[in-house]
Amino acid sequence: MKRILIVKVTSLGDIVQALPVVADIKRAFPGVQVDWAADEAFAELVHWSEGVDRVLCAPLRRFKKARRWSDLKAIWASIAELRAYRYDYIIDIHGVYKSAIIAFLARSSQRIGYQSQDLGERGAAFAYTGRFGPRPQGNAWHGMRISASEALGYEVDGPPIYNLRLPEPLTQPFTPGSAPVAAFFHATSKNDKKWPPGHWAAIGRELSERGFHVVLPWGSAGERAEAEQIAAQVPGATVLPSMSVTEIAQMIDACALVVGTDTGFVHLAHALQKRTVMIFTATSPSHCGVDAPFRSISIGDGRSVPPIGTALEALDYVLASSDQFAEQHGSAAA
């Protein structure tokens, strides 16, 4: 086994949670080269993975929105780069038309994808020469690891390894030696995934009393207005300025705690081994959640709004158990 291509095109949280597949493959096949194909909008994240040897990307999402000639030329150029090597296997763990087209255009006689009932778009099946087994029940992130292992013939062993290394920030996100920082990712792509502003304010006040400095990032004017509404009710809270994806990642890496809804940046916090509480109101925590002993927990049933008390219990768990873990092992909890 010399070279493998993983295809996972979007989005931020899904790509983060797919990264452990790289460590699994490299553990199973020492010396193998692992390339990754992603949308240009998320290629930056894949570059942070220490296990990925080559990142292939094209502005697929941007071209779909703007239909610009420059983006089309960039897509054509990316095809030549995609076909520069022949792969022993292509593993499509996305399962939609655009990922299937990438798999089909790349050079390999072994292109493995999901079974028809597990595809995001059933027409994607045209690209594959082989199929994964039925998608496992339960956590989707572990399911991706299982699917890749079935395709390549190895056993999944141990917890997920993300192997992320962020670029050094030009300036430190927070003053060294200041209060521990808790970041609130209150914004989501869908309104039904939101948690009420009053609930955010309540846990913000609790954390402020515990000595945390609460910060709120945002990505749009509406999200900023909601962040300001929450911050006005939390002593010392800060609404952050507009930030790039890299800057937000670096901010997360400097935090002691991250609380957020089911969004990509909260998955990134988990991958960066931050103390993490993920709140579910409309999506399945058993399918899409995060969980790591002493560190990460998902709350909610995916059908209703979790009460403030449940969130406070989750905070107690990740904060108290992290301290307990540090005492037991003689170092700060990961």
Automatic annotation (TrEMBL):
Membrane topology: Peripheral membrane protein
Known EC number: 2.4.99.23
NCBIfam families to which the protein is assigned, alphabetical: heptsyl_trn_I
Molecular-function GO term, any one: ADP-heptose-lipopolysaccharide heptosyltransferase activity
GO cellular component, one term: plasma membrane
Keywords: Cell inner membrane, Cell membrane, Glycosyltransferase, Lipopolysaccharide biosynthesis, Membrane, Transferase
Stated family: Belongs to the glycosyltransferase 9 family.
Pathway: Bacterial outer membrane biogenesis; LPS core biosynthesis
Coiled-coil residues: none
Reactions accelerated catalytically: an alpha-Kdo-(2->4)-alpha-Kdo-(2->6)-lipid A + ADP-L-glycero-beta-D-manno-heptose = an L-alpha-D-Hep-(1->5)-[alpha-Kdo-(2->4)]-alpha-Kdo-(2->6)-lipid A + ADP + H(+)
Protein's recorded name: Lipopolysaccharide heptosyltransferase 1
Subcellular localization(s) per the UniProt record: Cell inner membrane
Family annotation (InterPro entries): Glyco_trans_9, LipoPS_heptosylTferase-I, LPS_LOS_Heptosyltrfase
SUPFAM superfamilies: UDP-Glycosyltransferase/glycogen phosphorylase (SSF53756)
Entry keyword annotation includes Nuclease: no
Predominant cellular place of this UniProt entry's protein: membrane
PANTHER family per UniProt: LIPOPOLYSACCHARIDE HEPTOSYLTRANSFERASE 1, TETRAACYLDISACCHARIDE 4'-KINASE-RELATED
Any one GO BP annotation for this protein: lipopolysaccharide core region biosynthetic process
The organism's place on the tree of life at top rank: Bacteria
Stretches that traverse the bilayer: none
